[in-house]
């Protein structure tokens, strides 16, 4: 008799769940996120027990092991590791720098090596400084003005641009390509203003590239804090003969093996159609990578947890992917797409969170006009949760390699005004992530996954 009652109860619960309206399903998801979420605890462990997770590091491997264990404990249908070779770069001892305005008169300034940079000579590097605002300035000044000098790239992020990611895009070329271009004119090193809208004393690292420059032609590259960039610029206007000294000990090693961490809930009716949600597990080493991108990883894991907690049985296969090596190579995203294509897997939708764990505002979509019209029809469902921004635009770096004409790619868009205060800096740490904001982001992601699973992607004509 007890068995009969049990199965009858289970049937009733299942039947009621199947009759939920979209409004009711979203409310269940948000309620579960705000009362039963695991995301904040997961992030606490990643940030405070493991720390910065630079590709190829011991900490990166610890993060792989930890997140796989947590996905196993969610009771998913399948959890596995996908091998991927990643670059291994080590910062070495703390960097040191000063500028000298007169013989013996020095001012110490905070710097950090850019990711992938070579070291300075053993005793450090000292030379006169030339300030520029853009890569184009190098050609204008020419070899005569730049040879034997340290180039100081000092183009700030545009504070009038409300989209801070656009402001970042407007000046990040000097960080990425500055060393390769300056070396062509005989420069011996570069210093780059940190990509930060705030004036502070924290240098922000980030990836850089030498392109096809020969190893023996590569020059050291470092970021300088925004306060010190302004001070150096002012000092150069007063005394153009200032010299700059910096020492860094970074080193590039051979590639090592790491992993993407993957877990999935199998679809009930069309399991061959795959929907991906993810973030990147690696981070820079100065802080603990809480916003970039520990938050995105735990939110993506939480999506599967919330779907299970709310009783939703997806029609399609929902797969969480924690990508390795977004910061300095994108190897994880490329490897996942490569394997998916080799297996002829049918990916229909992908959602990425890599913009911090701040208050969610909406989503950006890389999709057809027909799919965007469908997305806009869902906007009233999100308005009670203050999610109002549905725009076309960039989705995410790691899901980008999956793109084809049939897919919809999306990116979570939190409020971005504080993001670059922490991006790639020593203050990208756990205490700057708000628990409720993190949970609301995860709920918003799970809700979007639910709607695309229920209604599907509109096929291209």
Gist?
By secondary structure, this protein is α/β, with parallel strands linked by helices. It has helices at 2-18, 22-36, 39-50, 58-73, 136-146, 164-169, 173-183, 226-238, 290-309, 331-342, 369-377, 379-382, 419-422, 435-455; strands at 78-90, 96-102, 105-108, 111-113, 125-132, 150-153, 189-193, 221-224, 243-247, 251-265, 270-280, 316-323, 346-352, 360-366, 389-392, 408-414. The termini are far apart.
Outline, from the CA principal axes? elongated
Number of strands: 16
Average pLDDT, rounded to a whole number, is: 95
The order of strands across the largest sheet is 1-10-12-11-13-16-14-15
Helicity, in percent? 25-40%
Largest sheet: 8 strands, mixed
Please count the helical segments: 14
Keywords:
461 residues; eight-stranded mixed β-sheet
Would you kindly provide a written description of the structure presented here, covering whatever features stand out?
With 461 residues, the chain is of the alpha/beta class. Helix content is 37%, strand content 24%. It has 14 helices and 16 strands. The chain has helices at residues 2-18, 22-36, 39-50, 58-73, 136-146, 164-169, 173-183, 226-238, 290-309, 331-342, 369-377, 379-382, 419-422, 435-455; strands spanning 78-90, 96-102, 105-108, 111-113, 125-132, 150-153, 189-193, 221-224, 243-247, 251-265, 270-280, 316-323, 346-352, 360-366, 389-392, 408-414. The protein has an eight-stranded mixed sheet with strand order 1-10-12-11-13-16-14-15, with helices on both faces. The chain has an eight-stranded mixed sheet with strand order 3-2-9-5-6-7-8-4. Helix 9 (290-309) links the parallel strand 11 (270-280) and strand 12 (316-323). Helix 2 (22-36) runs antiparallel to helix 14 and helix 3 packs antiparallel against helix 9 (290-309).
């Amino acid at each position: 008799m007890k068995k009969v009652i049990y199965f009858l109860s289970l049937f009733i619960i299942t039947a009621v769940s199947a009759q939920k309206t979209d409004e009711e399903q979203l409310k269940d998801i948000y309620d579960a996120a705000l009362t039963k979420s695991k995301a904040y605890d997961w992030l606490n462990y990643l940030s405070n027990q493991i720390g910065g997770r630079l590709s190829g590091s011991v900490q990166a491997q610890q993060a792989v092991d930890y997140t796989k264990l947590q996905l196993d404990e969610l009771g998913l249908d399948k959890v596995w590791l996908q091998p991927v070779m990643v670059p291994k770069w080590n910062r070495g001892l703390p960097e040191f720098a000063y500028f000298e305005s007169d013989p013996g008169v020095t001012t110490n300034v905070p710097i950090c090596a850019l990711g992938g940079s070579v070291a300075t000579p053993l005793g450090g590097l000292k030379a006169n400084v030339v300030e520029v605002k853009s890569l184009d300035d190098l050609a204008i000044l020419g070899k005569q003005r730049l040879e034997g000098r340290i180039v100081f790239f000092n183009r700030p992020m545009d504070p009038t641009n409300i989209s801070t990611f656009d402001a970042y895009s407007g000046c990040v070329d000097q960080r990425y390509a500055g060393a390769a271009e300056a070396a062509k004119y005989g420069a011996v090193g570069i210093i780059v203003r940190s990509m930060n809208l705030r004036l502070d004393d924290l240098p922000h690292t980030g990836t850089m590239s030498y392109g096809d420059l020969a190893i023996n032609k590569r020059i050291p590259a470092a970021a300088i804090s925004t306060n010190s960039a302004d001070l150096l610029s002012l000092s150069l206007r007063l005394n153009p003969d200032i010299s700059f000294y910096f020492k860094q000990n970074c080193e590039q090693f051979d590639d090592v093996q790491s992993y993407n961490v993957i877990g999935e809930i199998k679809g009930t009716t069309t399991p061959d159609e795959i929907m991906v949600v993810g973030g990147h597990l690696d981070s820079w080493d100065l802080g603990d990578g809480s916003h970039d991108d520990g938050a995105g990883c735990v939110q993506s894991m939480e999506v599967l947890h919330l779907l299970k907690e709310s009783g939703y049985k997806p029609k399609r296969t929902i797969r969480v992917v924690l990508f390795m090596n977004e910061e300095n190579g994108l190897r994880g995203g490329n490897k996942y797409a490569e394997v998916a294509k080799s297996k002829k897997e049918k990916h229909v939708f992908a959602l990425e969170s890599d913009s911090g764990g701040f208050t969610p505002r909406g989503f950006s979509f890389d999709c057809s006009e027909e799919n965007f019209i469908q997305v806009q029809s869902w906007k009233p469902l999100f308005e009670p949760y203050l999610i109002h921004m549905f725009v076309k635009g960039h989705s995410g770096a790691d899901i980008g390699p999956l793109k084809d004409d049939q897919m919809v790619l999306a990116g979570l868009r939190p409020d971005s005004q504080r993001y670059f205060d922490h991006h790639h800096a020593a203050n990208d740490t756990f205490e700057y992530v708000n628990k409720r904001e993190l949970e609301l982001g995860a709920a918003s992601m799970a809700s979007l996954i639910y709607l695309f699973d229920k209604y599907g992607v509109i096929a291209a004509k």
